[in-house]
Amino acid sequence: MSSLHIAGDAVADAVNPALTIAMLVVAAQQFRRRAFDGVMCLLAAAMGLACIYAIGALDHALWQRLGMDYSTHAAYATSLIASMLVWRRRWMSVLIAAGLGYLVLIVVMGYHGVIEVITASLAAVIVTFPWHVLVRRVRARSSS
Questions:
Q1: What is the pTM of this model?
Q2: Cα end-to-end span (Å), the chain
Q3: In the chain, how long is the greatest CA-to-CA distance?
């Protein structure tokens, strides 16, 4: 195994834990501003993650039927990035660059194919954003 492959593997292993920590920081910052917002931020992110794992449980019925493999790692990263984008729009360029870099790394390392990464990421966005829309509505009602 080449040193480049070892380094790529180490980076790939670090991305989702780093995104998790970043999401916890976002939630903590929201909590400091208003406890309810912090809880709602974390709840919406957690529900998005729960949904991507539910999709993973259906992997056999969906992706494998098409000869593909659901990329839980891509979906996890995309879900957290989508969640952070809702709460930290000014982080958009960094989050999108990091997310795209990670998705490319997944493909380059041979963990998943391009279509697998794209479909898992798309699924993650589809199941994550509605939770944040719901939370924003609840938050708006609680502020009035």
A1: 0.94
A2: 59
A3: 59
